[in-house]
Design a protein that fits this description.
The structure holds 2 protein chains of 2 kinds. Chain A is α/β, with parallel strands linked by helices. Chain A has helices spanning 45-56, 67-74, 99-109, 126-135, 153-166, 182-186, 210-223, 233-248, 286-289, 293-299, 307-319, 328-345, 363-366, 371-382, 398-402, 406-415, 520-535; strands at 8-14, 18-27, 30-40, 77-81, 87-93, 112-118, 140-145, 173-177, 194-196, 252-257, 262-267, 273-278, 357-361, 386-392, 422-429, 438-446, 449-458, 462-465, 472-479, 493-499, 504-508. Chain A starts with 7 loop residues before the first strand and ends in an 11-residue tail after the last helix.
Chain lengths: 546, 347
C-alpha cells in the first residue's frame, strides 16, 4: 500500500499520438511501479495525473484522500517526448537505385524525412526535377553519387541542380559523394553552406553509410529541438538499452514502434549501441497507405478481411492515430501493419541474428491485449534467428529512464529492475529446414521437473511450450540436416538456457522470411494455424517430479 | 474572424502584391517562370580548350542564373562564350565540354484562390488573412479551387450519386454525404465541378478516381482544376448532422478548397462546429472507429474503471446514446465532442 510518507516519481513518455505515464513509489525499500496510464497526447497533463490518482486510490492510504493528485503532480518527473515535427530533406542522387537508395536509407534511419528526391533515372525530365526541388520546403539538402575512383559529371550536375533549386533559400547542404569533387561542389554554393561527408557508396562493391548517418544525426540534433536532444524518445530509448546491455552483457535489439516514428536499437553486449530512427517508419507510414501497401498488409493476415477494408482501416489509423481499434478486425489490421513495419525497419546492417534479447516497445506491441500477440508481432516482423529472449517495455519506462543524466541512468534502471521489462519467453527460430521434414528436436530440462520432449518441430511449424515468468530451463536442441540457427556451427546439437514468460518457449521452424502459399485461401489457412498456435491457451504443465 | 493562409512560392517567383493589399480568389499574386527543356551550349570548343581545362574557365558556377548575351566562360586569350539565352546554368560536362542551360518559360500566374488581405510576404511564401471560417478534414486530393457552396444530398448519411451532379453544379463546391463512387467523382470533374466535400470515401474509389485522372492527364484530355475534401474518415461515413446543418446555412457562400492540404475556407461564415477530444458528460459526440464510425450521439455516462473493448483492449469508456436510440459503450479515445459555435446563420 502506498502510505502518506511514500516517495513518488512520475515517468512520462509523450508520444506523437499517445502519452504513457508510469507512477513509481518506494515500497518497503524498493522502487516499484504503482500505477500506469496511457491516453491520447491531446488530453493533457492534468487528465493523466487524475487518471493515475484514480487508479491508485483503492490501494493507497485512505488518509491521502484528495491529496493524491497533488502529490503526483508534485512528484519528481522524468520525461521524454517525440519531436514535434520531423526534419525534412531533399535528396539529389546520381542513381535512384544505387547512390539514391543508400543515401535515402541513411537519411531515413537518421530520423530525416525525405520529402523530395531527384535522380537522372527517376523518369522525369530535367526541368521537372528542377521544378520539384524548387517547390520542396526543406530543412536541408543532400547530394549523393559518384564512386571514389572518379569524378562523376552526373554528380556535379545533380549538385548544380540543387544549387539552382535552392537559390538563396538557404539550408545546409550535405555532399556525400566522391571526395574528388568536394571542391567543385562547395564552389556551387555560398561559403560554408556545404558539409562534405565520406562517400556512402565509395565503390560499386562497398557500402559505408555510417559517416553519412552520423553527420545527419548530428545535423538533426541541431535542427530539431537542439536544447533537448537527450529528452527525445528515440535518444532515451537507445541510451536505456545501451545501459541495459552494459549491465547484463547481453546483445540486445530494441524496437520502439510508434504511430509516426520507429526506432531500432542494437546494443552489442558491452554497452555500445547503434540506432536507426525512421521518421515515417511507424504505423501511420505513407508506405502502408500508398498503392501496394494495403495489399502487402492483407497478405500477412490470417483473418478473411478484404483488401478494401484493410485500406480504409489503415487510412483511418493514419488520419486519427490517437484512436483505438474497437473491433477484432481493426486490431488484426493494426497488428498486421505492425508486423509489416517491423520487418521493413529491421535493415540489413542491423540484423536480428545472434541477439540475446529482443525488446518491443510502443503501445501496439507493449500494450497488446494478449502477450502472445506481442510475441507474434515481434517474431513475425523481426524474425530473430537463433535463441532469443523476448520482452516488452510494458510500463513505457525505457525512454524516460534513458533521458536521465549519464550518471543516473544506471541507478534508475537498477532501482526498477524488477519492473523494467515484461518477459514474454524465449523464441527459438531456425531457418533453411527441408520442407515437410523435421527441422529441430527440442527437449527442455528443468531441475526438479520432468523433462519436456523431445518435441519435433517440422519446417513450417510453430509450437509453444509453456514456461512461466521467472522460470528457466536447459534446452537441448538437435537441428536436422539443412536447418540452422544462424551462426555456422560444427555440431547439430546445441544447448542453451531459455527463460520463461507470459508466452513460454516458442519453437519456430517457419524459416526467414516465413514462406507462405500463393493462393489466398491456403495462405490464410497457414497463417490461421500459426496464429492459433500462438494464442492457444497453454496446456497445464506436467506435475513436479517428487 | 479571420484565418491565416500561406501560399508557398518557389525560387524565382516575382511577387506582385504587398502587405496590406486586398486579394480575391482569381487574383494573380505572383508570377513564376518554370524552367523549360534545357539547351546544350558548347563551351570548350569555342574556347579551343580541352573540356576539363574549360571547366576552370567558367565565369558563373552551375546553378546560377545567366542572362542572354552574358559571358559564361572566358579564356586567357580573350575568347569568350556568351550565353545564347537567359536561363539557369544547370551543368557543365567535363567529358564533352558543353554546358546545359535551361531557359525559363513564359510567366505563369500564382493565383490567390482565397479572398483576404496580404499580411506577409517573404522569399518562400505569401501570407493572407482570410475573413471566414476554416474546416479541416482528414484527407483529400487535388488542386486549390474555389466556388460557390452547394449541397447535393438531402441527408448527411446519403451517398452522393452521379445523377445528383448536373450543369448547375459547374464551378461549384458540392457538399455530398457519406461517400461517392469513382464514377461520380469522374462525372463531377467532367461537368466542371470545382470541388467536392464528403464525409467519407472508400480508399479504393479514391484511388480509382486518381488513376483515371492520371491517365486523362497523360493523354492530355484533362482541363480545369478539381479538389476533394474528406471530413470524417475513410469508408462509408456520413457527415455529422451539426456540420451538415452548418453547410446548409452557408449554401451560396463562396468557398476555397485545398484538397491536398485537407482544408476548406467558407467566406463570411461563422465557425463550423468545433471538435474537442476528451468529451464530457452531456456532450454531443461523434465516434471515429468501426463499427460506429461517423455516427453522432450524446455522451450519457462513463463506465467505472477500464472497460474491455471488443478488440480486447482495456480503455476508458463512455456510454453514448446514438441517434438511433441505442446506447453503446465506446472508448473515449474514439470520441470527439462537437461544440456548436453559433446558433444563427453567422452571416
Amino acid at each position: 500500500m502506498m502510505s502518506v510518507g511514500s516517495e513518488l516519481a512520475l515517468l512520462v513518455d509523450v508520444g506523437s499520438a499517445w502519452t504513457k505515464g508510469t507512477l513509481i513509489a518506494r515500497v518497503r525499500g524498493a522502487w516499484r511501479i504503482v500505477g500506469h496510464h496511457a491516453q491520447p497526447t491531446g488530453w493533457g497533463d492534468s487528465e493523466l495525473i487524475a487518471r493515475l490518482a484514480s487508479a491508485l486510490r483503492p490501494s493507497a492510504d485512505p488518509r491521502l484522500g484528495r491529496d493524491l493528485e497533488r502529490l503526483i503532480a508534485a512528484a519528481p518527473r522524468i520525461e521524454c517526448h517525440t519531436s514535434v515535427r520531423p526534419a525534412r530533406l531533399a535528396l539529389a542522387a546520381v542513381s535512384r537505385e544505387v547512390s539514391g537508395a543508400a543515401a535515402r536509407r541513411a537519411a531515413e534511419s537518421a530520423g530525416w524525412l525525405v520529402v523530395e528526391s531527384a535522380s537522372p533515372d527517376d523518369g522525369r525530365a530535367l526541368t521537372d526535377r528542377l521544378v520539384a526541388l524548387q517547390a520542396a520546403e526543406v530543412d536541408a539538402w543532400l547530394i549523393a553519387g559518384g564512386f571514389e575512383s572518379g569524378r562523376s559529371d552526373q554528380a556535379l550536375e545533380m549538385a548544380a541542380l540543387v544549387a539552382a533549386a535552392r537559390g538563396n533559400r538557404g539550408g545546409p547542404v550535405i555532399w556525400a559523394g566522391s571526395s574528388q569533387l568536394n571542391h567543385d561542389v562547395a564552389g556551387l554554393f555560398e561559403l560554408g553552406a556545404v558539409t562534405p561527408v565520406a562517400n556512402p557508396r565509395p565503390s560499386p562493391e562497398r557500402d559505408d553509410p555510417a559517416p553519412l548517418r552520423a553527420c545527419l544525426e548530428e545535423l538533426l540534433s541541431r535542427t530539431v529541438e537542439p536544447e533537448s536532444a537527450r529528452h527525445l524518445s528515440p535518444v532515451g530509448f537507445r541510451r536505456a538499452l545501451s545501459q541495459l546491455s552494459r549491465e547484463t552483457e547481453l546483445r540486445i535489439m530494441g524496437i520502439d514502434l510508434g504511430m509516426r516514428f520507429a526506432t531500432v536499437v542494437l546494443a552489442d553486449g558491452r554497452g555500445e549501441a547503434e540506432s536507426r530512427v525512421f521518421a515515417r517508419g511507424g504505423l501511420t507510414a505513407s508506405t502502408l497507405t500508398a498503392p501496394g501497401g494495403p495489399s502487402r498488409v492483407t497478405r500477412g493476415m490470417a483473418e478473411p478481411i478484404d483488401e478494401q477494408t484493410v485500406a480504409d482501416t489503415l487510412q483511418n489509423i493514419s488520419a486519427r492515430p490517437a484512436t483505438l481499434p474497437q473491433t477484432e478486425d481493426d486490431l488484426a489490421v493494426l497488428q498486421a501493419a505492425a508486423r509489416h513495419q517491423l520487418a521493413s525497419v529491421v535493415s540489413d546492417d542491423l540484423r536480428a541474428e545472434g541477439i540475446d534479447l529482443l525488446v518491443g516497445a510502443g503501445r501496439v506491441i507493449a500494450a497488446a491485449p494478449r502477450p502472445a500477440m506481442a510475441a507474434q508481432m515481434l517474431i513475425d516482423g523481426v524474425r530473430p534467428v537463433g535463441v532469443t529472449a523476448l520482452a516488452i517495455d510494458g510500463g513505457a519506462l525505457l525512454g524516460p529512464l534513458g533521458s536521465l543524466d549519464d550518471g543516473e541512468i544506471g541507478e534508475g534502471m537498477a532501482a526498477l529492475r524488477e519492473d523494467l521489462l515484461v518477459p514474454l519467453g524465449t523464441a527459438v527460430i531456425c531457418r533453411d529446414g527441408r520442407a515437410g521434414h523435421v527441422a529441430m528436436r527440442v527437449t527442455l530440462h528443468r531441475s526438479g521437473w520432468p523433462s519436456v520432449g523431445p518435441i519435433e518441430v517440422r519446417s513450417g511449424q510453430l509450437q509453444i511450450v509453456p514456461l512461466g515468468a521467472g522460470q528457466f530451463a536447459e534446452m537441448e536442441l538437435d537441428l536436422e540436416e539443412g536447418a540452422s540457427l544462424g551462426a555456422a556451427r560444427r555440431s547439430r546439437r546445441a544447448w542453451a538456457e531459455v527463460t520463461g514468460g507470459a508466452v513460454g518457449v516458442i519453437l519456430d521452424a517457419r524459416g526467414t522470411p516465413a514462406s507462405l502459399p500463393r493462393r489466398a485461401e491456403d495462405r490464410r489457412a497457414v497463417l490461421s494455424a500459426w496464429r492459433d498456435a500462438m494464442l492457444r491457451e497453454p496446456p497445464q504443465p506436467a506435475p513436479r517430479a517428487r | 474572424m479571420s484565418i491565416t493562409h500561406r501560399i508557398p512560392i518557389s525560387r524565382g517567383s516575382h511577387v506582385s502584391v504587398a502587405v496590406g493589399d486586398d486579394v480575391h480568389p482569381d487574383q494573380e499574386l505572383a508570377r513564376r517562370r518554370t524552367p523549360l527543356d534545357p539547351q546544350i551550349v558548347p563551351v570548350a570548343a569555342p574556347l579551343r580548350r580541352r573540356p576539363e581545362v574549360a571547366a576552370g574557365l567558367l565565369l558563373r558556377p552551375p546553378g546560377s542564373f545567366v542572362e542572354a548575351g552574358e559571358p559564361i566562360a572566358q579564356a586567357s586569350d580573350g575568347r569568350q562564350v556568351l550565353s545564347p539565352l537567359a536561363g539557369l546554368l544547370l551543368a557543365y560536362s567535363r567529358t564533352d565540354g558543353n554546358a546545359i542551360i535551361s531557359p525559363l518559360g513564359p510567366e505563369e500566374p500564382i493565383l490567390a484562390h482565397v479572398s483576404g488581405r496580404v499580411s506577409g510576404v517573404d522569399a518562400t511564401a505569401i501570407v493572407i488573412d482570410v475573413p471566414g471560417a476554416a474546416l479541416d478534414g482528414v484527407g483529400g486530393t487535388g488542386e486549390a479551387v474555389h466556388g460557390e457552396l452547394v449541397i447535393s444530398v438531402d441527408d448527411p448519411g446519403e451517398e452522393l450519386r452521379a445523377t445528383a451532379i448536373d450543369v448547375g453544379s459547374t464551378g461549384k463546391i458540392v457538399v455530398g454525404g457519406s461517400r461517392a463512387s469513382a464514377e461520380t467523382l469522374t462525372r463531377a470533374r467532367a461537368m466542371g465541378v470545382a470541388g467536392i466535400v464528403l464525409g467519407g470515401v472508400l480508399d479504393k474509389e479514391l484511388r480509382d478516381f486518381e488513376a483515371i485522372q492520371r491517365r486523362r492527364r497523360e493523354v492530355g484530355g484533362l482541363s480545369g482544376s478539381f479538389g476533394l475534401l474528406l471530413v470524417e474518415g475513410f469508408g462509408k461515413v456520413g457527415l455529422d448532422a451539426g456540420l451538415f446543418a452548418w453547410f446548409e446555412r452557408h449554401t451560396g457562400h463562396m468557398a476555397s478548397l485545398f484538397g491536398s492540404q485537407h482544408r476548406l475556407y467558407v467566406y463570411d461564415a461563422a465557425p463550423p462546429p468545433t471538435r474537442r477530444s476528451m468529451p464530457r458528460l452531456g456532450d454531443r459526440v461523434v465516434a471515429h472507429r468501426r463499427p460506429i464510425q461517423g455516427r453522432g450521439g450524446e455522451l450519457v455516462g462513463f463506465v467505472e474503471g477500464m472497460h474491455m473493448t471488443a478488440s480486447g483492449i482495456p480503455a476508458r469508456t463512455a456510454l453514448v446514446r446514438f441517434e438511433d436510440g441505442r446506447t453503446i459503450p465506446v472508448p473515449v479515445a474514439n470520441l470527439e465532442a462537437i461544440e456548436s459555435t453559433e446558433a444563427g446563420s453567422g452571416d
